[in-house]
Structures are given as structure tokens and as C-alpha cells.
Amino acid sequence: MTKLFFKYNRIVISALHRLKYSTVPKTDSKLSINGTEFVTDDYTNVTPKILSYLNRNLHLDKGNPLSMVRQRIVNYFYSSFTHRGSPDFSVYDNLSPIVSTKQNFDDLLIPLDHPSRVKSDCYYVNRSTLLRAHMTAHQSELLRSGLDNFLMIGPVYRRDEIDSTHFPIFHQVDAVRSQRRDQLFPKNEDLELFEPTFDPTKPHTFTNSISDPTKQSCHTLEATKLIEHQLKDHLLGLIKVLFGDIKYRWVDAYFPFTHPSWELEIYYNNNWLEVLGCGVVRNEILAKAGPNNSIAYAFGLGLERLAMALYKIPDIRLMWSNDSGFLSQFQNKDLNAKITYKPVSVYPQCTNDISFWLPGHLSIDTFMSNDFYDLVRDVGGDIVEQVKLKDKFEHPKSKKHSLCYSIVYRHLERTLTQAEVNRVHKEIETAAISAFNVVIR
Ligand code: PHE
Fold it and tell me: Where are the beta strands (DSSP E) in 137-293?
């Protein structure tokens, strides 16, 4: 964190918000994160609040539900896949979340105009550096270091709205499993990984097409089908270990870094819940970073969703709770015990609306709601349960635009007083005036 951010307190809040949310390029200032200095620019949008979570690593906290699910997944991969008695998969669960745009996007063939790159969805440190938006950001570097089977586990950061199932930080388990021809087809020496027209030692002489929905043009159908079968079999094995018999379905999907690709949905609480994305790794990635004579599958799954469904945890922010009423339900429990979360008590919500006129140069369409959500989160902290856009209005004469948001406040561990909420709400109004030049109605 910068010196400025270290000094962050409520008195300097207006100045900080003007700096953070203004569209004026912030050049030449320095931001120090975990001891490394970064030069900020017009892309910088990490907030002090988000940076304060950086070394939290909930997935490694013994007794946190996320950590328990992580441990169960690792155990499954350790025990199911061994080579001469030792685990086949290596586990990386402490990689730095500060990555380059090359790692997070370019190395994974994510096009320059892909929506996942936009500033309003990612936490950028500057134009070339961000807080990783998915664990797949580490795939290429680990392949390049010579690994073929590995799990990458940790928090990922995405700007989002605030409610019981969304939090700007969540945790993923990503994996790669790659196999050479002799590993995939040990008993069938006449089966091949690659089509005869493709020479794996000269991948640049071939344009690998993904226009056929069943496979990449460089791969044979046999190799693709067998790896698809293994991928689905391994993942369903995991879901069975976690949930026992549960209704599920595979859905065709698209990811720039895999082809073909699928998502797995489980039927939970009368809804289909997407829990993971997966597919056959694009050969361009393997050819560049790793074993050019292999075929690989990859997947990424969300720990929060699995933990919430598994333990019936109703609110994602409970994962961050230090309340002993919550933690004691998981601490010192057998990893495989069936645990159902019991709410300790439910405290009342308190809803206050905020309406404002946008300054002349901004319209309902150009005002970035995510900027406003971040501001509310920064000022209000964890007592902000939800922020929802309630109403939009254009004045018929002045043509000025106005927005109304509802902010729901609730403390997870006690009842808030109206006076306390009003005080925080007022601070949010003041910060919004200063950051966005709005006029409160
Ligand atoms: N990185 C993808 C996501 O965050 C998930 C994924 C990983 C999909 C690996 C395919 C392969 O949504």
C-alpha cells in the first residue's frame, strides 16, 4: 500500500475518493503493495479496502469453511492420482495475487477487446498490472517451469455488486493435467494425440482452428474424447466425494483458453448452480509454455459456491466473519463430517436511500455503478449488506440525470442503531459528492 493508503482514515476520505474515482489520469504517483512499488496511471482503481484484504488468505485459515473445502479437494486429487506412491499433482496455494496483464489475459489467448479486461470489472494496479481475476493467470508460468499436473489455489479479485452471494474477492481452485501419448494411450500404440497434418515440433507452421465444436483441429478425435471423459470423470468423482448423490448437468461453454469447454452445474436449493468451468487446454498455450507433445485438461472451480452449498451458509460475507458463533461450527471438526450451518441469530436490516443528480457531463449510461459500489464499500465497510440501483430519472427540462440507490445496512453480529446508520450514510453522501461531483437530492 502507498504511504497515502497506510495513512488512510475518515478525515482524508474525500480527498482520497477524488483521487481514486476521478477520470483524470493519476500519473507519477507510487503505490507500494506488499513491499513492491508500482507507478499508478489512468487504469489504477485498486482501493485501500481491497488492498487491506490482500494478505488475508482465508483459504489457508484452519477451521474456515473455505479452507476445509480446499483441503478436501486437495485430498481427493492426492489420493486419486498417484505415481509410484507419491501424489501426481503439486499444489500451489500461496502465489502472489499481483499479476501482469500478460499472465491474466495475453498468455491465455484472451483478445485485447475481451469484456473481461474492462476497467470496471477488474482491480488494476496500473495498465500492465492487476489483482488476478482468476487463478488461470498462473497456468502458463507453471507449465513453463516444467510442471504437468498441478493445482493453483487462492483468492481472485473482481469488481462486483454487493449482496449475499457476491463479494469482490472469492477463492478458486484451478488445475492442469497434461499427458503424453504413452500416458493417455498406454495400451494402444497406434492411437495418436495429433492429426497427421500437425507437427508438434513446429506448431507455428499450423493454424490451430476451433471452428469444429468437438475438438481443436490439431488434436485427434480419439485423444479429445478420452481426455474429455477423464476430465468429466475426475470432476464428477470430486462432486460425489463432497455432496454424495446430487443432480448435475454439463453445459457447453466457451473460454478463450480451452476448447472444447464445459461448465458443471449442480442442482441446489431448487436452482441450477454453476460450480466450475473446464475444457481441453488450447494447444497454442501448451506449445508456447509447456510440453509440446502433450494434451491437457484444465478446470477452475469456485470455493465459496461449493462451501455455501455444502454447509448451507446463506451469506458469502460470513466467510470473512471472526464471530466465534460462526467459526466454532467449523473449527476442530472432522474434515468429512456433515456440517450444516445454524444461524446464531438474525439482526435486523436498515435501508437508507441515496439519490443524486449527475454532473452535466455524465449520463445514466456513462456513470459507472461499480465505482459507486466501491465507494460505498470503502466508506461503509462490512455493515453494507447490499447496494441496489432503485430508480433512474431524466429531468424533462434540464435534461439532467438522476439516480437512486438503496443501501441496506446490517451487522452480522449485532443490531445497528438508526443513528449509527445515518452517520455512515451521511459519510457516503459526502464522499459521493466529493468523488463524482454529484448533487444530493
Ligand atoms: N478461469 C475460468 C473462470 O474463472 C475457469 C476455467 C479455468 C475455465 C480453467 C476453463 C479452464 O471463470
Answer: 149-157, 169-180, 248-255, 258-268, 271-281
The predicted structure's pLDDT at residue 22: 43
For ligand 1, whether the C-beta of 279 sits within 6 Å is yes
If you measure from the C-alpha of residue 125 to the centroid of ligand 1, how many angstroms do you get, rounded to a whole number?
22
Ligand 1 centre to CA of 312 (Å) is: 24
Same domain, 156 and 289: yes
* Ligand 1 close to Cβ of residue 300 (< 6 A): yes
Whether 270 and 140 map to the same domain: the answer is yes
Report the atom number in ligand 1 closest to the C-alpha of 302.
4
Integer angstrom CA distances of residue 395 from 276, 356, 402, 403: 45, 12, 8, 11
**Spatial CA neighbour of 25 closest among 40, 47, 8, 9:** 40
How far apart are the CA of 300 and the centre of ligand 1, in A?
4
* Minimum-distance ligand 1 atom for the alpha carbon of 134: 4
Ligand 1 contact via 141 beta carbon (within 6 Å): no
Q: What's the distance, Cα to Cα, between the start and end of the chain in Å?
A: 35
To test the ligand 1 pocket, which listed residue (105, 109, 139, 174) has its Cβ within 8 A of the most ligand atoms? 174
- CB of 260 closer than 6 A to ligand 1? no
The residue among 323 and 271 whose pLDDT is bigger is: 271
Domain shared by 228 and 94, yes or no: yes
pLDDT of residue 13: 35
- Determine, yes or no, domain membership for 49: no
Q: Where residue 370 sits, what CATH number does that domain have?
A: 3.30.70.380
In-domain check, residue 39? no
Shortest-distance Cα residue to atom 10 of ligand 1: 278
Residues 35, 55 contacting (CB under 8 angstroms): no
* Spatial separation of the C-alpha atoms in residues 82 and 401, rounded to whole Å: 62
User: Are both 301 and 225 inside the same structural domain?
Assistant: yes
Q: Are residues 151 and 258 in the same domain?
A: yes
Cα 262 to middle of ligand 1, angstroms: 10
Which residue matches cell numbers 481426455? 227
CA of 177 to the centre of ligand 1 (A): 14
d(Cα 126, Cα 42) in Å, to the nearest integer?
7
The span from the CA of 337 to the CA of 110, in Å, is 41
- When divided into structural domains, the chain yields a total of 2
Give the cell for residue 10: 475518515
What grid cell was written down for 255? 473460454
Quote the domain boundaries for residue 172.
58-311
Q: What is the rounded (10 degree) CA torsion for 284, 285, 288, 294?
A: -90
| Residues 311-347 pLDDT 10s | 999 999 999 988 777 888 998 899 999 999 988 656 8
The single-letter DSSP state of residue 144 is H
